[in-house]
Amino acid sequence: MKKKALIVAFVGGAGWGDKPYEDEKKYDPKLLRETYAYLFLTAEKENIKFIKTSYMWYNERENVFEKGWIFDEKLGWIKMEKKFIPDVVFDKIISKKKRINDYKKLFSRRNMLFNPHYIEKVCTDKYETYKLFKAISPRMFKITNKTELEEKLKKIRGDRVVFKPDQGSSARGIIICKKDELLKKVKEIKEVMVLQEFVECNRNNRIRMHFGVYDIRVVLSQGKIVDSYIRASKKNVLMSNTALGGKMIFIHKEELPSGILKDLKTIEKKFKHYKSRLYTVDFVIDKKGKVWLIELNDKPGIFLQKDSYAWKKRRKRIAHAIIKNMESYEKRS
C-alpha cells in the first residue's frame, strides 16, 4: 500500500482564472508558475503534496480548505475543487487583516504553520526585530505621527536617515535622505513607520569598488546557511533591493565575515527551539568594518530563479531545504 503523502497548503493569493498568478502585479506570473511547479514536483518525489490555496477558501467551521491548485508534470496546473485538510500550512501572505492573522495564530497553535507565528511576528515587524536584537542593530524609533518624527530625528546620529513602514517588503515606501530634508519629504503619516540610522557601507570593501550601496543577505534553514549573496544597488541608488534593479552577487558561506557568523548565532539563539524555520537575514558593514543587522524576512522572494545553471542549482538547494523542514510535521489523518 502506498504511504499517505504529507499535505501542504501553500497559501497565497485567491486568483481562480485559467492559471494561478494571473493577477500577480509584483512578479512575472510565468516565472512564479515555473518556480513553484519545480517546488511542487520536487516535494512530490518525497511523498509531500503541495496544494496552492488561499485563506479566502478556508472553511473554519469544517476546518478545511475548499479548493486549490495542484501541478501535474504532464497536464500542468489543474484546479482541484475538492475539500482538503492540510498537515502543514506554508504561508506566503503578509496581511494586517485580523481574520487572516487569527488563522495564522490558529495554525501556529496547532503546530501546523511553517515558520511559527512568533518568527513571522519578529521578521515582519521591523521594530520588533530591533527590540529583540538591539545590540547588533542601528538605532531605530517607532513613529506614528509627525510630532514624534520631529522629536526622534534629534536623536539620530549621522547625516542620513532611513524612514520606512514598520511592516512591508520590496522597498515599499522607503525614504533615504539627509536628516534635515526628511520633514519636508514626509507630508503625512498614514501607517506605523520606523526611523532608522543610515549605515554607510565600507568604501574599502572590494564590492564597493564596483557598486554603490550594498547589503549581504544570508538564507537560513533550521539554523544552517543555505545560501548567501550580496545585493548591490544600481548607481546613484541608496537601496540595494533587487526589486529596484539591484544586482545579486552570490558568495560562498566560507567568504562571510566572522562578524556576520557571530551575529547569526545570536539570532538563532532566539529561534532554535522551533524545529521548522526558514528565513533570511540582511546585514551591512560600516566604514569601520562593524557588522549591523538591518532586517529579517520570513517570506523572501527566494524562489524567483533565472534560466541559468547557477540559479537552478540554488533553486534546488532552497527546495530541498523546504522539504527537509517538512520532516518536523506529522500527518493529521
Largest sheet: 5 strands, antiparallel
CATH architecture of the largest domain: 2-Layer Sandwich
Tally of DSSP β-strands:
17
Distance between the termini: 16 Å
The percent of residues in helical segments reads 25-40%
Main CATH class of the largest domain:
Alpha Beta
What is the H/E string? EHEEEEEEHEHHEHEEHEEEEHEEH
Q: How would you sum up this structure, described in words?
A:
The protein is α+β, with helices and mostly antiparallel strands and 333 residues long. It has 3 domains: 6-114, Rossmann fold, CATH 3.40.50; 115-136 and 200-321, D-amino Acid Aminotransferase, Chain A, domain 1; 139-198, ATP-grasp fold, A domain (Dna Ligase, domain 1), CATH 3.30.1490.20. 26% of the residues lie in helices and 26% in strands. The protein contains 8 helices and 17 strands. The strands form 5 sheets. It has a 5-stranded antiparallel β-sheet with strand order 15-14-13-16-17, sandwiched between helices. It has a 4-stranded parallel β-sheet with strand order 2-1-7-8. The protein has a 4-stranded antiparallel β-sheet with strand order 9-12-10-11, with helices on both faces. It is globular. The two termini are 16 Å apart.
Question: Topology, please?
Answer:
Blueprint: E1 6-11, H1 29-44, E2 48-53, E3 58-59, E4 64-65, E5 68-72, E6 76-80, E7 88-91, H2 98-109, E8 113-114, H3 117-124, H4 126-132, E9 140-143, H5 146-153, E10 160-165, E11 175-178, H6 182-185, E12 193-197, E13 214-221, E14 224-232, E15 247-250, H7 258-271, E16 278-285, E17 291-297, H8 309-325
Parallel strand pairs: 1-2, 1-7, 7-8
Antiparallel strand pairs: 3-4, 5-6, 9-12, 10-11, 10-12, 13-14, 13-16, 14-15, 16-17
